[in-house]
Amino acid sequence: MTFAATLLHWYARHGRDLPWRQTRDPYAIWLSEIILQQTRIVQGTDYWHRFMQAWPTVEQLAKATEDEVLRMWQGLGYYSRARNLHAAARQIAALGHFPDTYKEILGLKGVGPYTAAAIASFAFDLPHAVVDGNVYRVLSRHFGIDTPIDTTQGQRLFQSLAQELLPPAQASAYNQAIMDFGALQCTPNAPDCTACPLLTTCQAAHDGTANTLPVKQGKIKIRHRRLIYILVSHNGCIAIHRRSAGDIWQGLWEPFLTEVPIDASPRLPLWAQEAVLVRHDVKHVLTHQVLHADCYTLSCTQKPALPSDYIWVRHEDLNQYGIPRLVERLIEETPR
């Protein structure tokens, strides 16, 4: 059998049963693709169901407020995805229908080449090959390609190869097959090559190089940050403000925050000198950052002079605001 035929045969027996694969609704498929960017399927599936229940159509999602969408997204991280999702829903609603060509889908906010190819093939059976981490791994190992995947040359090479291998009449099934094959069979670490249906034609299995492929040229430096939160309370309310653009968690709400160098001692404002430290060095790991948070509480008989963008919200009403998971943890684990 050919490479594609082998994958399709394997997929018919081992493919994952996912809810968005039971429909050709482009909205449901697009929603799953956005949620699953940087998110494991087991976690993303629950969020997909919640979104579909809250907003069964793209028109209903478009009518939601950004705060409502961010609250529903809370805990998934990478909140720019939620803002882009909402903006794209409004694009689609304004268009009057879900775009049904690769070029039009690529024009949606937050949609790149991989996502556009996935939606185009899964929803409309258009012959566009997907290239994600699983595809890079399968192709680099099977064909013995050591061109770094994080270079322009590598990306063009793998995209061209993926498109060449795609059977046009089975674009949807093939794209899902190669991604599932990478996730379940040709795994990142210690793949079981002896049970692989592509064993006899796989260059990496022949050379013993499976654990060295695919190749990446450079590694991203991890940044460490120290955040000092102060939970300022007054008459059962807590002071929060919305984070601005240009950093993590744009548009989400948080208590008073000051940031200090990672190796520096915390410096509290004069009005917060009586604050009590309740949580020290709570670590929160993002893709390229590690956040180290200290949390203080301060109960005031009079409201301190906070910046004008702060509002006072009752503790029991905090669940109506989109809050970063780190802040949610701090509040949950802090006695009142």
Task: Report the strand count.
Answer: 7
Q: For the report, how would you describe the main beta sheet?
A: 7 strands, mixed
The topology string of helices and strands comes to: HHHHHHHHHHHHEEEEEEEH
Gap between N and C termini: 66 Å
Number of helices: 13
Average residue pLDDT: 93
* Morphology call: globular
Range of helix content:
25-40%
Rg to the nearest angstrom?
24 Å
Structural class: alpha+beta
Quote the beta fraction.
Answer: 5-15%
User: Low-confidence runs (pLDDT<50, min 5 residues)?
Assistant: none
Walk me through the structure.
This protein has 336 residues and is α+β, with helices and mostly antiparallel strands. The chain contains 13 helices and seven strands. It has helices at 3-14, 26-35, 41-54, 58-63, 66-73, 80-95, 102-106, 113-124, 133-142, 152-165, 171-184, 203-207, 325-332, and strands spanning 223-234, 237-242, 253-254, 256-260, 276-285, 289-299, 311-314. A hairpin with a 2-residue loop joins β1 and β2 (237-242). α1 (3-14) packs across α11 (171-184), α2 (26-35) runs antiparallel to α8 (113-124) and α8 packs across α11.
Key structural traits:
13 helices; alpha+beta; globular; 336 residues
